[in-house]
Amino acid sequence: MPDQISMQIITRLRQINRELAKHSKHLHENFQVTVPQLICLREVYEHGPISIGALTKIVFLNNSTVTRIVDVLEKKEYLIRNRISNDRRKVHLEITEQGTKFIQKAPVPLQKRFFDRFKNMDEKTISMILWALEMLVDMLGPEIPSPPVHLAQPDNETTTQVEI
Fold first, then answer.
1. Helices within 2-148 (DSSP H only)
2. Which of these, 35, 41, 79, 159, could form a disulfide with 24 (CB 3.0-4.6 Å)?
3. What would the pLDDT profile of 61-91 be if each residue is shown by its tens digit?
4. Pair (104, 127) in one structural domain
């Protein structure tokens, strides 16, 4: 029985991955941006000037991937790199006016259907989904510790801090 359930979980994770890939392809074809690029741009927009290292930790991508994403976004004139000291390695990313305009009209990183359904869910259901996903991430053994997230346990109303 556990083998059947674990296969169902793996199948569902693969389905989720497939849908994310399809949506990323849609974004790239229609908006010339991928989901990781959109996520990175949104984070710079929301956090203000930020280092590549800090962005890497927020978006859970490796440094070289984020650097390539920043190169693309900089070429599109959505981001700029600003040196913050004489050390050439220390730069902060800042969103440009063109990047801000793009973010303000950009689609959500997930499918609209998902986003619409998600925003109409009650808080307890959202907490249960997030809690289950956090458990899966923990069970899969993340290489990099995640920041603590405050979650309501699905079986009660209390909120706890969970290390992911």
1. 2-31, 35-47, 52-59, 63-75, 97-105, 112-119, 123-140
2. 35
3. 999 999 999 999 999 999 999 887 776 667 8
4. no
